[in-house]
From TrEMBL:
Stretches assigned to the Integrase zinc-binding domain: 10-60
Pfam family, one: Integrase_H2C2
InterPro entries tied to this protein: Gypsy_RT_Integrase-like, Integrase_H2C2
Name under which the protein is recorded: Integrase zinc-binding domain-containing protein
Amino acid sequence: MRRRGDTVDYILREVHEGINAQHMGGRSLARKALRAGYYWPTMQQDAKDHVKKCDKCQRHGDMHL
């Protein structure tokens, strides 16, 4: 059986980097996962954290100063 964290990471990775990858920001990622039928209490923060760890987003994303 998979740990909850592994499942959350898998869902966020698939939505963020999967076949239709758009590398959206944290809020958009959480909304897209919600529309796909997923929900967990820490979804918003988990999505933001996932985007912060994404190498492509950090290299090519907009800079917010």
